[in-house]
Design goal:
- This protein has 2 domains: 156 residues, GAF domain (Beta-Lactamase, 2-Layer Sandwich); 143 residues, Alpha-Beta Plaits.
- 43% of the residues lie in helices and 21% in strands.
- The chain is built from 10 helices and 10 strands.
- It has a 6-stranded antiparallel beta sheet. It has a 4-stranded antiparallel beta sheet with strand order 8-9-7-10, sandwiched between helices.
- Helix 2 runs antiparallel to helix 5.
């Protein structure tokens, strides 16, 4: 058996996949409709929308298969995302890459596989629309084109999902994306006693940047601010542009004292940015830091409000 190779720019691919907030989400008719059509159109027992995560492939939609995920190292889709075209295995038993694969020798006893990569506008291939049969078969050019056309519909849904949860300018989460993730995070913190700390940041004198240097400079200031924030957070943390010149960071498994140290690192990065003098303006921020306490903060809105109040107080003290 041959394990699939890791794509170039894998970190960026995984980051974009996870930014969609689809992994481990509930079934959705907009995706299930496509797999039902694929199953009927190609007369196969199994049709899947597979999202290839770090060490697994997870099925956003599945028809004819009970499993919700499989390991990435045995996945056919892990190979398919390396291709620019529809990836075809007409008879897995005759293919040295797959003949001894557990998905071939055991359930679901794959013989035929065709997977169309789900390539985002960025070029990242996040998964596939694939069809599977327990019988070997041929797959002609017309059928490949049909599967590709169906995959374009899936991609349009992924792009729509991205637009709903991602800030277009800074390419980090928007308010909706943040709230969707943070609410799940707080529920887990309350259930398992995990620590989590929210940092609410406001880019100081942003209006002056726009007024003095123009909106293009203002946009660049927001982009640079978000990039600097990204440099101090971990993959497990949640970062978002909350609106206008306001940003939020949810630091996972992090107590308030550690969060303050992180914010100190960020302020140092802002200082270094300003010292470089590559822009006519300087970036500075006010902030509020609040550790989540289940008995004190009833919900996410309470936590955000508390951090926002502290940020405003910090801004007043330093204005």
């Amino acid at each position: 058996m041959m394990e699939p190779q890791i794509p170039k720019l894998e970190n960026q691919r995984i980051a974009e996949l996870r930014s969609l907030l689809l992994l481990d989400s509930s079934p959705e008719e907009r995706f299930d409709r496509i797999t039902r059509v694929a199953k009927q159109l190609f007369n196969v027992p199994i049709a899947l929308i597979s999202l290839v995560d770090t060490d697994r492939q997870w099925f956003k939609s599945r028809v004819g298969l009970d499993a919700s995920e499989t390991n990435r190292d045995i996945s056919f889709c892990g190979h398919a995302i390396l291709s620019d075209d529809v990836f075809i295995v007409e008879n897995a038993l005759n293919d040295l890459r797959f003949c001894d694969n557990p998905l071939v020798t055991g359930g679901p006893k794959i013989r035929f596989y065709a997977g169309a990569p789900l390539a985002m506008p960025s070029g990242n291939k996040l998964g596939t629309l694939c069809i599977i049969s327990t019988e070997a078969r041929e797959f002609d050019l017309k059928q490949r084109a049909l599967l590709h056309d169906l995959s374009e519909i899936v991609i349009s849904e992924l792009v729509s999902q991205q637009a709903a949860t991602q800030d277009v300018l800074t390419e980090i989460h928007n308010r909706r994306g943040f709230e969707m993730l943070a609410q799940k995070t707080l529920a887990s913190c309350a259930r398992y006693g995990w620590k989590s700390t929210l940092v609410f940041l406001d880019l100081n004198k942003f209006k002056e940047i726009n007024d003095n240097y123009g909106h293009k400079a203002g946009d660049q200031a927001l982009i640079d601010f978000a990039q600097l924030l990204n440099e101090i957070v971990r993959e497990s943390d949640i970062i978002a542009r909350f609106g206008g010149d306001e940003f939020v960071v949810m630091l996972m498994n992090t107590a308030e004292n550690i969060a303050r140290s992180k914010v100190g690192d960020f302020m140092q990065k802002l200082k270094q940015y300003n010292q470089q003098g590559t822009q006519a303006y300087e970036l500075w921020a006010s902030y509020g830091i609040v550790e989540y306490v289940p008995g004190k903060h009833g919900n996410l809105e309470d936590l955000i409000s508390a951090a926002d109040s502290l940020m405003y107080q910090n801004k007043q003290e330093n204005s």
